[in-house]
Amino acid sequence: METRTWVEVEDYFTDQLVRQDKPFTDALKRQDEEGLPNINVPSTQGKLLYLLAKMIRAKDVLEIGTLGGYSTMWLAKAVADGGKVTSLEVNPRHAKISTENIERAGLSGRVDIIVGAAKDTMSRMVTDWRGRFDLVFIDADKENNPVYFDNAVEFARPGSIIVVDNVVRNGKVLLDGDSEPSVVGTRLLIEHASRDARVESTAIQTVSGKGYDGFMVVRVKD
Ligand code: SAH
Ligand code: DHB
Ligand code: MG
Hints:
With 222 residues, the protein is of the alpha/beta class. Helix content is 45%, strand content 23%. It contains nine helices and seven strands. The chain has a seven-stranded mixed beta sheet, with helices on both faces. Helix 4 links the parallel strand 1 and strand 2. It starts with a helix and ends with a strand. Bound molecules: S-adenosyl-L-homocysteine (SAH), 3,4-dihydroxybenzoic acid and magnesium ion (MG). The site of magnesium ion has 5 residues, from loops.
């Protein structure tokens, strides 16, 4: 199957179904102009994050990995009134650009970006955040996925959803014993999820304009 079809079908769904507001496409344009990597979620997946958040009427969302704020904006658009997206980002420049993008989208009141290594932020906030979040989106450095996941389960409540991006990486997830830290991290994350009796999980493989990848969806049991 040629990737040309993947891109065309992706564009078709984006045009017909995603129908994103201008600030969203502007945010991607700006992210690109500022030289940030083009590693945001595809628009179809951004819309899925939005739909999932709406389905569970999420109020409090935690994101790990902000980049230019594109996925943050989808989540912020979805949260119920009085809701909040807390997004963790290690790179101050990414945090600055995403803050501006979020501002232009009129979503500032619903987003807090915390600059710093997510692991440190999470360990500092463990008391405040236990049982707090309705949805956690994990999308930062993949080697830390197991830590992020274990924390996410602590920060969730019964019925919360955890989504983890990029768990397929062109099939690299199958490379057991690989030395690439991102692959090791993702395989460990899957092991944690599979062993953890508090959650039930699946993973979906995807193709899009961004190639062959996938994401995991986890629900914390009642
Ligand atoms: N969620 C974004 C994409 C995030 S890309 C979207 O879909 O639009 C991954 C981001 O994680 C980058 O901005 C990178 O700077 C950040 N990151 C990498 N390591 C991190 C760490 N240790 N702590 C917090 N953020 C990190
Ligand atoms: C990378 C990170 C992502 O979150 C993504 O969606 C794609 C690629 C990366 O670090 O290469
Ligand atoms: Mg990603």
